Structure formats: C-alpha cells, structure tokens
Amino acid sequence: MAINSAPETSLLSLLYRSYPNAVSPDATEPDLQTATPKIFPQTNFSVAEEADIKQWLNTISGLQTALVKDDKELVSTILTQINSHLATRTTLLGAKPSVADISVYALVAPIVEKWTPEERTGEKGYHHIVRHIDFVQNGQIFALRIPDEEKIAIDLNDVRFVPKPIDPKEEKERKKKEKAAAQTPDAGKPLVVGRGKPEAAPKAKEGEAKDAAAAGAKGEGKPKKEKKEKKEKPAKAAPAPAAPPSPSVIDLRVGHILRAVNHPNADSLYVSTIDCGDAPGTENTSLDEATGKTVRTVCSGLNGLIPLPEMQDRKIVAVCNLKPVTMRGIKSCAMVLAASPRVAEGEDSHAGPVELVMPPADAPAGERICFDGWSEGEPEKVLNPKKKVWETYQPGFTTTDDLEVAFDMSAVPAVQGQEGKPALGKLKTASGVICVVKTLKGAAVR
SUPFAM superfamilies in the record, alphabetically (predicted)? Predict the structure, then answer.
C-alpha cells in the first residue's frame, strides 16, 4: 500500500520518521535544498553533485505541478527523462544517495502502485523507475523506515519486455557530439588581413641559382670546410625477453559478497555487491554507503543454480581483471569463480550442479590467490579480450579428488613443457591455505 497523503506532507513524514536527528519535528515543510548532507553525513558531495541535487529537486517539483494540473503530456515527458537517466545509474547521482531519490519515491511510488505490469515493465514501460522505487524503499543505503504494508509490491521477476541495455560509452560519445555541435565553429570565419598563413619564400630562379653556384666555385683562398665525422649512435638495448606464459596474469583474489539480489532484467542473473580489497577511487568500483567499503558490482549467472541466501555475506574467489561488461543494463566488474561438472561438447555447460570456490572464511577481502608454482610476476591490469587470455588458461582450472581447486598444466598447450612447473598446482591464498569446493570432483572451474 502506498503513502496516500499529499506529496509534500508524505515526504516530510517519511523524512522525519526515517531521520529524526536530521529533520526537525516542528518543520511544516521539508527544507530539501539543505537536507542531503544532514541525512547522509558520512557521504561527501562535490559542488557539481550538489548542483545536480538542486536541479533534480526542481524537476521533481515540476512533476508535482504537472500531476496537480493533470498535464499528462508533461508528466509523461518528465517520467521518461527520469527513467532514461536511471538506465545507467543506481541512484540519481549515480551511486550516492540523496534527498532527491527520496523525493522521487514519495511522489512517484503511489503512481507506480497503480501501474499495470505492462506499464511497469512492458515494451513502453518505465523499467528503471520501477527498479529505483524498489531499491529506495528496501535499500540499506537509504534505511527508510517504511512498514511492509506501506511498501509498493514489486515482483522483480515479472519483466514483460527486456529493453536493450544502454552502452555508457556510446551515450558519452553521443553527449560529446551534441556538445560539440552546440558550440560555434571557427571554420568559415574570414581571415584578418595581414594575419593569414605566411606564404612560402619564393624559389630562386634556375639561372640565379647556377650563377650563385659558379661564384662560389671561383672563390680563392678560402679553405674548404672539413666534413664533420658522424657520431655513431649507441646501439639500442635488446628488448627484455618475454616472460613465459603463466596463469599468474589472471588477478584472483578473495572477495567478500556483502549482499546479492536478483537482477531486475534477467531471470538467470544475480547482482552482487562484493568487497575485493580495492583502494578507494579505484576504477570500476563504488562506495558502499551501508558499510563504507569500496566495492564492485558483479553480475553472475548463478540464479537458479545457487540459492540466493547462500550468496549473502560470504567469502568467494573473484576474477578481478576481466574487462567489465554490461549485462542487461548493469555493468559487471568482476567474476565469481565456481565449479560445475565437465560436459561433452554440445551439452549445456550451465545445467548444474554448481558450487562456489571457497577460500578460507577468515581470509581478508583482497588477499591474492595463486596456483602453487605459478605465482611469479604481477597480474595484468586488464586482460585483453582480443588475446583470449582467460580462454587460454581456464581449461586448466579444475578440482581434484580431494575437492581442492588446482591448475592442470596438461590441459593448457601454451604452458606445456615448462621446466620446474608442477603438473598440478593447488590454488592457495597468500597465507598458504588451499581453496576448495563442497562435493564436485574433476569439475571445470570458471
């Protein structure tokens, strides 16, 4: 059941109920322009983000006015704008929470409640607004105190149409072109007299050139200039020999799944928030407001194979240097390592059963994991997908009869024959503990 009171009254009540220390009980209307830093004191907001919050509050105010006037065309325009903006963002600011998100919830949630499933997630539906409403009312990052009976009932598995995901790079390039087109080009402006490009010096006439040469030849008493001896250039240093191929180029780490949810646009995917030990500000990470940790968002095709409760608050092994990919509208920045039975060519490799690779429960997030005997060098920053690095080494990832995860040299032609390397290198943490699976022997690990 949605909040049924007038929007401003509803918002003020929601803010005071959820953040009594930030909102005065004597307030008669919400002071939204200054509310965000009071409600989220642990989050730092830049000047640009504060300006964005103000702009969104104005947009939301415009939506409220359009609703009061029953201006359906303007309402549709503003909702489409919000929906498009949220297509590549978790919140209106991207990942950080703000009072603007709560304002959208207070105003739009009653509207969403009345929408049909087709209006919510049909071909012309507002998929991303629906996802945002569910996130705001349930997310720990907002911690809104809303009784269950007042929350909007949203079935995340009822998706009538899956929209084509927006490519962030293409969107950025499009906006860049629009900005460039809006600027006045310099081309076509008349040149200022006397400030054009300097003309090249005229070439000497052929006859004058010959006369000058002859005069130079008749000069007497002038010693000829000795030619300078050319200095030999130092020989270039020979390039360092390439390191022998090794699975150590793959960045394997202990990861801590803080939480996992169903993907809003894909029945087979989970979306996990994982602490991989990254430093704050690292590319492809974000700040988890609930814990203050730097985290990665990871999509994994484990829905239906591993129960969602088993994906909560647990340690896993993460592959951290694969190139990020967008999966049904959500950017995935790592991969969760799991084992499954080997299948014959042409059979479904994702049929199950599937078991997560387990590092020691007390291993810290971010601890490096390597195959015994293959730990030389540092992992590459990002694996080049064109070079098929992951595809080269993954066939050697396996489990033993003792349920230990290992690297089988014989399964990877690129490393066969290297002297001093183990035929079967166990997957170990830096502290020397071997990673294992529950029951699968001789399984493929990927």
Answer: GST C-terminal domain-like, Nucleic acid-binding proteins
Helix (H, G, I), strand (E, B) or coil at 62: helix
**Angle at Cα 183 formed by Cα 177 and Cα 188, nearest 5°?**
110
Q: Are 2 and 154 in contact (CB under 8 A)?
A: no
Mean pLDDT by 10 residues, the chain (446 residues): 43 84 70 85 88 89 90 91 88 91 92 91 88 90 89 82 63 64 45 41 48 48 59 64 87 96 92 94 91 94 93 96 93 96 73 91 94 91 93 95 96 90 94 95 95
Distance (Å, whole) CA 8 – CA 102: 11
Query: Looking at 242-391, which runs of residues are DSSP E strands?
Result: 252-262, 270-275, 286-288, 293-300, 314-319, 325-327, 330-332, 335-336, 338-340, 355-356, 368-371
- What is the model's pLDDT at position 47? 86
Instruction: Map tokens 């953040």 to a residue.
Output: 19
User: What are the CA-CA distances from residue 418 to residues 225, 246, 341, 408, 413 (Å)?
Assistant: 61, 10, 28, 13, 11
Residue among 351, 381, 353, 371 at smallest CA distance from 418? 371
Is the omega angle on the peptide bond into residue 353 within 30 degrees of 0, that is, cis?
yes
Nearest one of 404, 396, 401 to 437, comparing CA atoms: 404
Which residues are registered as beta bridge partners of 428? Answer: 370, 434
CA 328 – CA 165 distance, rounded (Å): 5
Lookup: tokens for 124: 């012309």
Tell which residue, 379, 353, 365, has the closest CA to residue 437: 353
Distance, CA of 436 to CA of 403 (rounded, Å): 6
Q: Say what the pLDDT of residue 239 is.
A: 64
Question: DSSP letters of 71-118?
Answer: -HHHHHHHHHHHHHHGGG-SBTTBSS--HHHHHHHHHHHHHHHHS-HH
The tokens describing 2, both together, are 């949605």
pLDDT at 417: 84
Assigned architecture for domain 247-445: Beta Barrel (2.40)
Q: 3-class SS at 413? A: helix
Domain ranges of the chain: 7-150, 247-445
Q: Which two tokens stand for residue 168?
A: 């962030």
Architecture, CATH, for domain 7-150 = Up-down Bundle (1.20)
pLDDT value of residue 150: 87
Judge contact between 445 and 339, C-beta under 8 A. Answer: yes
CA atoms within 13 A on the CB side of 329: 20
pLDDT for 198 equals: 45
